[in-house]
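Review this today:
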Amino acid sequence: MNNQIGYLFFGVGLFIFILRLRPQPKTFVTPFIEERLPRVSIVVPARNEALNLPRLLGSLTQLKYSDYEVIVIDDQSTDTTRQVATSFGVKVFAGEPLPDGWTGKNWACHQGFLKSTGEYILFTDADTSHLSLSLRKNIQVMKAKRVGLLSLIPTHLTPTWWEKLQGPFQLLVLLATDAYKSRFKRGTKRLFAVGQYLLFSRECYEGIGGHRAIANIPAEDITLASRAINQGFGYTCLTDHANDVTVRMYGEGLSYFVKGWARNFRLGLNATSLWSTIEVVAVMGWALGAPLAILLRPQNPFGYLSYFAFAVLCALFQRRLGKMSLWGAALYPCSLGVFCIATGLALSGAIARRPIQWKNRRINVRD
């Protein structure tokens, strides 16, 4: 009976893993004539981001795009965020105090929108860096696909040993959200979008009500993408433009990484579906069942084959996410263990209805 359960998890988990994470066809677009490039406003909400801003603003000021502006909203920072941003010659505005009924990031983004003048508006975070041709290519994709909103899967920077081991963790996140899905239908709950890169047409942004319409909703990225789909403006998530945008999330250390993802999972609980939960459980049953089978029955070759199959697939698929280590794939139970811890923290916070504390602010979540 135990063998039959193991075979079931292996077969179903393998099918789901490949189905959800398989590569999509590359996106080809027709190059623009220079004079036809629309004006773009790049809005950066920044709260205590003095350490991250130099890399971001250094990349934004080098974009190969003829008509754009960079707007930094200093969101009540207590460090040198404003001085650092000003040194790059971009537009910097002091954020107004946070009003009732708003989350901090949504309020900062809304203020940035009010200062914007572009036909397109890109909201991007301070922990990102942008390839010089990225904006041009992504505007072209939006026009070619006729969508009002574009997000993408960023490439992860991994300068430390533990960051290089996070490949299996990130793959499971993408599997749970069905990030490599090529089309999104109205009413879908299973959706991937990142607030680190949200590129809107102004028509779409204003049409869905912008950040004002979701003022008190912390998971702004998924909610905005869902509104763009449901209101007929269209949404696409790029999965094949590797290195267009790089990100280093939670470089402060492993404990900060766990807390940050527990926060993200908590915010995304309402954006998950029953089917995605079932699929994650099936994949986890295969992935973590393999080392358990090796421990309980070391003489049975099935456990070793199952472990090897999952590690190989992780090693192959994680190459799209950044310079991840092969050791991370080989030691994937450690990475998935962190995933379980973050999930447990998110669920316990939701059950206890505890508010989230982030960047010295309290976020009340409607679970």
User: Anything to note?
Assistant: DSSP finds 14 helices and twelve strands in the chain. The mean pLDDT is 87.
